[in-house]
Design brief:
The chain is an alpha+beta fold and 429 residues long. 39% of the residues lie in helices and 21% in strands. The chain binds one RNA strand of 76 nucleotides through α3, β6, β10, β11 and α12.
RNA sequence: GUGAAUGUAGCUCAAUUGGCAGAGCGCCGGACUGUGGAUCCGGUUGUUGUGGGUUCGAUUCCCAUCAUUCACCCCA
C-alpha cells in the first residue's frame, strides 16, 4: 500500500520559489556586471568526454581521482558531468577555431557543476558557478581586468565584505626550482607534518603549504617562498598586476601559501574570501592558465579566468540582504458570476499593458479575496462587484494607505483606470 | 572517503524515573452576509525519519539503516 518515498539524491536539492527569487536577482546582477565588462555568455554541454577533464584539471587532483560523476554512455564511451567550467570553455574555444576569428575572447558561463563530495554547508554535489575567461592576452592588464571583474561580480550581488588574496605560482621556467627546494625543506621537517601531508610531499608538495593542521602551518611559515623564486618575467608580471590593482583601489593580501587545486594554473592566482561560511570561506577563485589551451591540443594561447560559487555566495547573502522585491501587484477581486466575467478582460488588459496582476481562482467571499490579496502583498486591489458593474466602474483600494485616508478606496470609471493606476503606482509597472 | 551531533505537525520546538503526543507560528473559518492587516473565538495537520530489539507499555533505552548538519579532507 504505502510506497517508499522517492527523495532527492544526496547533495542535491530543490530550489523552491522563495529561493529562486534570490537566484534570479543574483543572476540578473551578475549578467549586468559581466555585460558591462564586455563578457558574453557561453553555454556548453553539461556532459563531456571524460578525457577532457582528465587532461585539463590533472590526473592526480582529487576532483579527477574521486569526485567526478563518470559513467559509460550507451556506446561504451566514458562521459562525465562537468565538475568545473574552464575545461569546456577551452574545448569550445578550440573546437570553434575562435582564436582565428578574434584575437581576444571574453566569455562567461553560469550554470551547474557536479562533484561527488560529501556535502556540508556551502558544498553540494550539484552546485552552480559563474565563471569568466579572458583568452588571448598574456599581459598583466588581462589579469587585472579579470580580478577586477571577479571583485565587481561579488560586490554587485551584495557581498562587499569579500577580501582578496593574491599569489603567483610562477611558470614552467621557475616553478621546478622552487618545487625542488620546497621538497628538500619539507623532507627535513617530515616528522613535524601530519600524515596526509607526508603523502602530499611526494604527490603534490605545494599543497602542504595550505594545510590547516597546526604543525604543518608552522612548517609552512618557515618554508621557502615561491615569491623568492620567481624569474624576472614572472616577478615583473606580478608587480604589474599589483600596481594595477592598487591603482584601482583594490585592497589585497599577498598570500604566498595560497595554492590552487587545479593543475593548470600558472603565475597569477587569487581567491575571494568571505565570512559566515565556516570552512567554505572561498567564494571565488581563479588565475592565469597559459598552458591549458595548448595542453588541450590548441595553439599557445594565454588566458586568465575565475569562477565563483553561487550556492555559497547566496548562503551568505541571505544573512546580509533583504529578500528581493518584485514589481507592485494589482489584485483583482470580483463578486459573483457577472463580476468574474467582467474581471477577466480587465485582468487581460492590465497584464498586456505590463502590470503584474493576480486574482483568486477559487470561489470565495470578497473578504477571502482581500485576505488573499494581503497575503500576496498586493499594492492595489480592484474590486468588481454588482455596484461597480452597474456603474461601469471599478473600486480601487490602496492596500498601503492608512485606514480612513480619503483616497484609501476610490471609485473609478473603467475608461479612466489607466490614468489612475499610473498615478497610484507612480509610473512603475 | 574519515569523525561527531541531530531527526516529534508545513515551520520553530516541548513532552518529568519508560505511562493518553503538545504549544507557538502558519493555514482555513467566524465575530464583521461588499472589503485585508490588529484583537478575540473556533477548526486543521503526525505512521514521533525507517526497520528491528528490550518492556505490560518506547518520542524516551539498545542495535541497524537512511537523511540532515558540523568538522576533517577537498574546493567555488
Amino acid at each position: 500500500m504505502s510506497v517508499e518515498a522517492i527523495q532527492v539524491l544526496k547533495g542535491m536539492r530543490d530550489l523552491l520559489p522563495e529561493q529562486t527569487a534570490w537566484w534570479q536577482r543574483m543572476e540578473r546582477e551578475l549578467a549586468g556586471v559581466l555585460d558591462r565588462f564586455g563578457y558574453q555568455e557561453l553555454r556548453t554541454p553539461l556532459l563531456e568526454p571524460t578525457a577532457l577533464f582528465k587532461r585539463s584539471i590533472g590526473e592526480a587532483t582529487d576532483i579527477v581521482e574521486k569526485e567526478m560523476y563518470t559513467f559509460q554512455d550507451l556506446d561504451g564511451s566514458s562521459v562525465t558531468l562537468r565538475p568545473e567550467g574552464t575545461a569546456s570553455a577551452v574545448r569550445a574555444y578550440l573546437e570553434n577555431f575562435t582564436w582565428k576569428k578574434e584575437p581576444i575572447s571574453r566569455w562567461y558561463y553560469l550554470g551547474t557543476m557536479f562533484r561527488h563530495e560529501k556535502p556540508q554547508k556551502g558544498r553540494y554535489r550539484m552546485f552552480s558557478q559563474v565563471g569568466a575567461e579572458l583568452l588571448g592576452a598574456a599581459e598583466p592588464a588581462a589579469d587585472v581586468e579579470l580580478i577586477d571583474l571577479a571583485v565587481e561580480c561579488v560586490r554587485a550581488v551584495g557581498l562587499s565584505e569579500a577580501t582578496l588574496e593574491l599569489n603567483s605560482l610562477g611558470c614552467p621556467a621557475c616553478r621546478p626550482a622552487y618545487r625542488e627546494r620546497l621538497v628538500a625543506y619539507l623532507r627535513v621537517q617530515r616528522s613535524a607534518l601530519c600524515e596526509p601531508c607526508q603523502r602530499r610531499l611526494e604527490t603534490n608538495p605545494l599543497r602542504v603549504l595550505d594545510c590547516k593542521v597546526e604543525g604543518c602551518q608552522k612548517v609552512a611559515e618557515e618554508a621557502p617562498r615561491i615569491l623568492d623564486f620567481l624569474g624576472p618575467e614572472c616577478l615583473s608580471h606580478l608587480e604589474a598586476v599589483r600596481a594595477g590593482l592598487e591603482s584601482m583601489g583594490h585592497a589585497y593580501r599577498l598570500n604566498h601559501r595560497m595554492v590552487r587545486g587545479l593543475d593548470y594554473y600558472s603565475r597569477t592566482t587569487f581567491e575571494l574570501l568571505t565570512g559566515g561560511l565556516g570552512a567554505q570561506s572561498a567564494v571565488a577563485g581563479g588565475g592565469r592558465y597559459d598552458g591549458l589551451v595548448a595542453q588541450l591540443g590548441g595553439p599557445e594561447i594565454p588566458a586568465v579566468g575565475f569562477a565563483a560559487g553561487l550556492d555559497r555566495i547566496l548562503l551568505r547573502l541571505a544573512e546580509l540582504r533583504e529578500p528581493p522585491q518584485g514589481p507592485p501587484i494589482i489584485f483583482v477581486a470580483s463578486q459573483g458570476e457577472a463580476g468574474w466575467r467582467a474581471a477577466l478582460p480587465l485582468v487581460q488588459r492590465l497584464r498586456r499593458a505590463g502590470h503584474k496582476v493576480l486574482s483568486d481562482v477559487r470561489a470565495g467571499s470578497l473578504k477571502a479575496q482581500l485576505k488573499r490579496a494581503d497575503k500576496d502583498r498586493a499594492r492595489l486591489v480592484l474590486v468588481l462587484g454588482e455596484e461597480e458593474i452597474q456603474a461601469g466602474a471599478v473600486s480601487v483600494k490602496d492596500m498601503a494607505a492608512p485606514e480612513g485616508a480619503q483616497d484609501k478606496q476610490v471609485r473609478c470609471a473603467l475608461a479612466d483606470l489607466d490614468r489612475l493606476l499610473g498615478e497610484k503606482l507612480g509610473g512603475v509597472k
